[in-house]
Amino acid sequence: MGLTTNNNLKNAILSIIAPLPSIFFYLYFLNNYSNPNHTLSFLWTWCYNHPFLLTFVLFFLNINVLFWAIAHLQSSHWMIDPYWPAVPVMLVYYYATHPCASYNPWRSKIVITMTSLWSLRLSHNYFRRENWQWGAKEDWRFTDMRHQYGKNWWWVSFFTIYFAQQIFLMGVTLPYYIIHTVEAPWSIWDVVAISMCMTGIILAYYADTELHEFSTKNAELKASEKPIIPILDKGLWQYSRHPNYFGEQLWWWGIGIFAWSLGYGWVLIGALVNSLCLAYVTTLVEDRMLKQSFRADAYREYQKRTSVWIPWFKSSSSLAETKDKTN
């Protein structure tokens, strides 16, 4: 117990310290960029004129390289997961505070507030799932890839976990950059975007809470040596097999709508890539379910009667079939 507590504390401290190089560099830049006599004035000029490229460089050095090195020292790639909800918050604050930013203040405040709520929701779900521990284990998909790539994992992991996630995160958060470079007045599309974002946050929160309660109940049943419940098909999960993923997609498409309404519709590609990635993750999760013998048959029936993502009512034929089987 003492060893676990010590590791938890050390990992928590490590997580707090890890992003400080980028944060300190940016704060130093803010304090010195306007000084033409500063020794690094040439660097500050570049940082001022290339806000997006600066985030790319800081992300690459501080998260890709540093987190990757820490992961190999610890033999676990756990730290990238709690930073998934943290990075968008840091990025939106960065874009809003950069010296060359120009934007509608109300749009910026609302987006920053919603991003903070989204981050709190996702962080809460992550730590709740991990029993409020830091670095107890890495994502099961990373563990599977570790076994798949064997001795090549040390370098493959840099590209599959870190660099790939950088491209993904930088792409999906591009609307934050657009929002803080355009001073357009408020429009009806802002209302649409806000509605989508908030609906996504609420849906994902309730779906994750129902999943957590289901997992907790099954853990209790297993500890009591009682039969566990094979599938979750109550609440939101009776209308969608992945309502949490649907909520997450609503969030990112809503953020993309902000940029689309400002004349930069092409950045919606980030939301599209996110949906494609979630489609792949959905396949992995469902394949994993079907490989578990105690729930495979029940899950196949669940697949037949329940929508994959978009919440929808069961068809009358599915309901009739289910009723016949129970009679």
From TrEMBL:
UniProt keywords, alphabetically: Membrane, Transmembrane, Transmembrane helix
A Pfam entry, by short name: DUF1295
Transmembrane segments: 12-30, 50-71, 153-179, 186-207, 250-281
Protein name: Steroid 5-alpha reductase C-terminal domain-containing protein
PROSITE patterns, sorted: S5A_REDUCTASE (PS50244)
Taxonomy, superkingdom: Eukaryota
Gene Ontology CC annotations of this record: membrane
